[in-house]
Amino acid sequence: MMPEREGCVLVVDDEALIALSLSDMLEEMGLPVCGTAATARRAIELADLHRPVLILMDVRLKGTEDGVHAALEIHRRHGTPVIFITGSREQETIDRIHQDHPAGLLIKPILPKHLKAEVERVLG
After folding, report:
1. Domain membership flag for residue 74
2. What confidence tens digit (pLDDT) does each residue in 53-80 have?
3. Residue 3 counted as domain residue
4. Cis ω on the peptide bond leading into residue 109 (within 30° of 0)?
């Protein structure tokens, strides 16, 4: 199956309302969203299918694997930049994020202007 479009963004968050909100913000910026995922496994599947130019990745996901696990696997396969999203300011969480190659980090709640600035910085 071919990806639907080039230059899309994958949104990974276990909370459907947050994933929808982030997707809406991205689309208002003119960035198509190629999918949303609530688990690490689904995030990896969608990244393989669509080859997004960017991933917004929550750290805590449904299932046994977290967003850092998914990001490490996706980075290994595709090198896709990941902006991590977390509601936690705990050092343990921040350290876990830095096990990967984070392109950026946003702390919830995410305002559209902060998302736009971070996406523009990462995508250049």
Report:
1. yes
2. 999 999 999 999 999 999 999 999 999 9
3. no
4. yes
